[in-house]
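Data availability excerpt. The first of two example chains:
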Amino acid sequence: MRRIAVITSTRADYGLLYWLLREIDAAADLQLQLIVTGTHLMPLFGQTEQGILADGFTPAARIALPLESDEPLAVAEAMGVATSAFARAFATLSPDIVVILGDRFEMLSAATAAFTLRIPIAHIHGGEVTEGALDEGYRHAISKLSALHFAAAEPYRQRLIRMGELPDRVWTVGAPGLDHLTRSEFLSAEALTESLGLDVRRPTALVTFHPATLDTDDAAAQCTSLLAALAAFPDWQFVLTHPNADPGGRAILPLLDAFAREDPARRRVFSSLGQARYLSLLRQVPLVIGNSSSGIIEAPSFGTATVNVGDRQHGRLRAASIIDCPVDTPAIISAIRTAIAPAFQARLATVENPYGAGNAAAKMLAVLRSTPLAPLRRKPFFDWAGKSQEING
């Protein structure tokens, strides 16, 4: 039985991994080893491990991180602790493959430990570009430590190959978060209204704003500009979620809380909505605002417009439903007005999403199940110079 260790550190990556976890857990020839870490175990961020347990998953290991602050030094020190803890967990669990999604610092720690212990890594969402965040560097570093690659779109597959990854180890599977479109059950507008304490049948926007960790402006100042723009729409309701645990994120929390307190009848803030509520709300509302990757990758398939604020997601492929704007109050107001205009909303039903249409979990499972393991412990460099840039596979 092949042992597959999958790491989840935030509410966001858990939602993207959910159907792959289900596929592995249901497979008679595979053993799921779920490792829970990061903000899942932190009360400040909603203690979201409870949602994982409620879904019926039992963690094989829990790795708590000492993140008393989100200052860069604290994050760097936590990465050292995490690397040691992941190494011990892998030594105990002896996984055959470690699955890592995305680009967070915890994931780089896990990749470093697994690579050193010669455990093959399968990386999801590699080859992408997010020029406004430290995630950009983490992501590419994880890719270079990984043996298998599941790209969300063909241009990303091509980039991974140009980075030296073997073409026959890189697959275009689409974005795994889109599997929810056809496989998940969504809450009705009535159920959402009862759960959130806000009538989502009225004009409502979903707002998530993370620190853009490579920006020179501080996160609090940027968030203040965004909230000032939201206040210019007194007829709209706003459901706001807390940012992640990146440097600068904790400075945003009191700003969100104060914004919600100013008008509690129209504004709600949550440390975490949970997967079911978040996806159901994404499907229900006409607009998402902020700089979350879900506004770029998942929202277009839900027929939801996105106002993408700032540079955090700069470099990612975009659907026609996304409006980019700088972190400037008048610019954000203008972008929101464009997004909620009837003409723009009417076009959303026909938007094509460059990240596919679902079924990523089944494609990834087939590779994880059948790929011979021994060759993965060596990682040749594929030098594509002089070869065709369009490498089929």
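And the second chain:
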Amino acid sequence: MSRSYTTGDLAKLAGVSVRTVQYYDKRGILSPSDLTEGGRRIYVDSDLEQLRMICFLRELDFSIEQIKRLFAEKKAKLDTTVNLLDRVKNQTGQSLEFLSDISLTMKNQLAWRRLQKRMWISNLATILIFVLCVAWLASRPQSVVWQGVGIGIGLVYVGILLTLSYRFSRKIAYICPNCHQLFQPTYREFVFARHTPKTRKLTCPHCHEKSYCLETAKEA
């Protein structure tokens, strides 16, 4: 039987302040399951699990709007991760492996940030060299030869950017917010998918749902 909690009880069990619970309620990502006649908010076990998973996503630097987007993908107010925890209560074996994948994602966040940093440094260095080459070519006499050199430099520039992008894509994986399985998309999917700084809209090969999946470094 599900227990009921006040706002203060919920905050204490989740290790956050009452103001945090009230803030999430105000932003529409943690609504109480019931209200008393006097307007007192009542929460249940599923609300507690939802709050804990909201805190988990916030620790991964998800914004409130990004969390809302995850809710919208499931066309429901409950976080998809909470749905996973609900299923775990009725299943064994493979469902527990999903939680292990989430734990892996948390551990790999530092490695993911390092990959991101190296990628941006490499891209900026490549762009800088390209700009210098263009400036140098602009000072050369106009001729077919130098035009050919310019085209060659442009092709090399594009090739380097594609190579850097490909290498980065092979070092990361994504966690599906619906089934919580880790997967690696094809390079084509990686390039053309809509994305945020930390998620990419992909079709999961396991559950076949298309949603914004959390990016993480592959396990070494």
